[in-house]
Protein 1
Amino acid sequence: MRAVIVPYVLSRAFVVVALGISRLVVDELAVVPRPLAVDQGLLAWDAAWYADIARGGYDAVAAEGLRFFPLVPLLARAVAWFPGVDTNLALLLVANLSAFGLGFVLYRLAWFERHDDAFARRAVWLVYLAPPAFVLVMGYSEATFMLLAAVVLLALRQQRWWVAAFAGLLAGGCRPIGLLLAVPALVEAVQQRRALTGRDIAARVTAVVAPVLGCFAYLTWAVDRTDDFFAPFRIHEDPTRRGSVKFPVTNVVDTAQSFLDGGHNTAGMHLVTVALLAALLVVLGRRWPASYTCYAGAALLLSLTASNLDSLERYALSTLPFVLAIADVADTEARERVVLVAAAAGLVGASVLAFTGVIVP
């Protein structure tokens, strides 16, 4: 409880303070035009879409709203049935309760892998204090997805295939990247495969295909609204979102060129993130099971195919093996102190930049 509650509460305090700072700065400087996100607060950016979908369904938003998968809006709508809880509050409750649960499952996952309480505690602090973690406080789907992903990874490592399948099915209906959970499931399923019964094989196959089925169920429902089965994915190809698909190496080179030319304000930040994630992928390859490495590698590769890397840091946070790798590297008291202080400062800074519209979370 101590390992979870303290960083959980502290991270939320940091984000709320950052929102207050953002509003104070915008008011004092009389910024024109006034950033929409600073007034929307915890319901800004993607959270506004989730709130509208939860309130009125997909008919209440433009067709581009189909890119937001339905699990979180459905959960918010269910919570809104409670007396005194409107849709906005329900969405924030879903996100923050999911984030609370994430801390406990991540602690258990980290302890299972290392049997080290200090390491497990450090992983929890990092997932709450990492700079992109302000989305775990807002009405985003990341917290719910990360909770489900943590359950999937822990269940896979414990060979609890049906638990992994159920959580994977929900994850597939939570975010498009839920599909990637089929990667660690496949890697774990093919290991230790001798003397398997028919029931064992069925359980493993179900765990592998469940994230795909969760995504497929939503795509099947959504096709009636666009006549394009892959519309929820194609919508992301708009230049203001992920943009067109590009070869990862070429994309990184183009981002570097954009940074040198001064054509993109956050290009330098994304380049640092790419370098950090590449280094962490090496750490995972050397110290962690193959399922973690393959999952993180697939997530990084997919992220780098987007010509617009604005949400790269958020996607990296939702890929839990990267968080575990940082916790693994910060294995001394001095390193841990430096990493956590830097992360907390980054969390406040990134929150201010997001609320003032400087960066796109």
Protein 2
Amino acid sequence: MASIARHRDVVLVAAALVVLFGATELLARGYRAARNERAETHARRGQALKQEGRYAEAADEYRAALSFSPHVFTYRLSLAASLMSLKDWREASRHLAELRETDPTSGAVNLMLARIESAENQPEAAEAAYQRAIFGYWPEDPRGNRLRARFELIDLYDRMGERNKLLSELLEAAAEAPPEPELRNQVGRLLLRHGAEEQAVEAFRESTRLDEKDPGAWVGLGEAARAMGNYRTAVSAFRAAQRRAPEDKNVARLLVETARAMDLDPTGVRLGAAERNRRSRELVRRAIAQIETCGDLSPAARGVAELARGALAIRHRGEDDTPQMLALAEELWHVRAPGCKAAQGDAALELVMARVGRDERP
């Protein structure tokens, strides 16, 4: 009987312990749930305040959320974003460094760190962080976020003067960009601004195929083709832009300038020898007139101008002096006064001289 009583006591004690442990677990769960709920409440307040631009108050709410749930990734990331809006780079960096320890592949964390390094004028560190962001993990809209990071890196390279790296990233962006006309236009404008005219033409062509009604895409195509000296394609593109935006005075100006340049250019492959010669001599005449409108001539400019006038006065029947005329036009353009540009005279002349100069370079 005693053994039965002892067994019953053991069972009762065990049952009591189970009940006690269960009650303790329920209390612990309730405590954790209450803390999580309070953390979420603070985080929601922080989000609302951040949307209103009240970043200091938002940061306080996110700190409160972290005091209840210190290991929630999104709370700390949102706190860092609020601190960055306040330009509190030091505290923001501390939170982001902690997050990167947790997840080194996070695209969002590395992008924010890159922005801080850039803001603090640490270009090499920013470059490395941008690269990690581009190749990092993005749970939402990975292509869009990677492109955004790549464009920011392109801007960094622009400020660093790293043209080769910039163009490499731009070509990557062109390859990765989704078929959206405005995005293609953005890539095209950047390529054109940094001297990659051929790739810019391709970007704008793609944009016109995606949305043939967009005058901006046609203008971009025209400007890129014009920069290459392909005036025929440029005129065609500007005409297409003008049909879509007939009231745009800038398009009209670009069309007139480019058409005049096309009629002046002596380097066209379809031209006969006589027409090339006539245009090259006209180029020299207009180059002389251009530099004379720019104020006092330097002795060197006066000497070249006199030489050019003498060459124009000599003309042997049937002789093609196009190479001599182009060389004189180049020399005249080289010795013109600083700041002597087409705004003071002949825009078509400046376009053609840019092409002649490019063709003459090795």
Protein 3
Amino acid sequence: MISVIIITKNEQDQIKTCLESVKWADEIIVYDNGSTDQTLKIAKEYTDKIFTFEGQDYAELRNRAFKKATGDWVLYVDADERVLTDLKDELIQISKSSDKSAFAISRRNIIFGSEQKYGPFWPDWMIRFFKAQEFKTWVGKIHEYGTFNGQLGYTKNSFLHLTHRNLDQIVLKSLHWSNFDAKLRLDSKHPKMTGWRFLRIFITETWNQGIKRRGFFNGSIGIMDCLLQTFSLYMSYIRLWELQQPKSLDQVYKDIDLELLKDQFQYK
């Protein structure tokens, strides 16, 4: 028996096809993180096992969802991923006969509308298929990963990952993730952000994305992705700088308004 778990938040444009790709599973569990769109209405067409939890710890979300699963094997699928037919057949066979405890599944990444296989985009392994009795726990508030007892296997077939749909989606996702990333860096006592640190981060990350991960050598899409990945990391450090200030920027601007009112709009 295979249980599929999908973590959602405002995925109305993607969730239906994702659910269609896994409707062969014995059990579908949707664990929602506070959707305000039509995500849950669509999900109800495919399963009655829908649960909600609003939190910023993604490992906790995945762990809570796992506790709802009753299958011998558990497959985690993101809303922007699709389980292709060959992968479905392979996972069913694995669930019947494999002695491995978990499997990493590669992803075929659709970036700005076309499949990309350079640098980070292939094979892009994700450990997502677990034998329930050998699973331990998910670890990490962001960039979480599953832990388990026993051996890891690798599937021959892949997810299809429909990411980088448009600029709005990429930028909004970057801004969203930067909040978590900056807070984690602050909690780990990251050195105070200064001008030279911003410059060093920009140069280092541009090198990593453009040269080391070969973004600059893969045409327009590679260059766009390289710069956007650098932007994404940069947002985290700008948020970190904000958190490191003795007074929040919101409070700074409120104080300016109070002073203007007090001093009859004389600004010194």
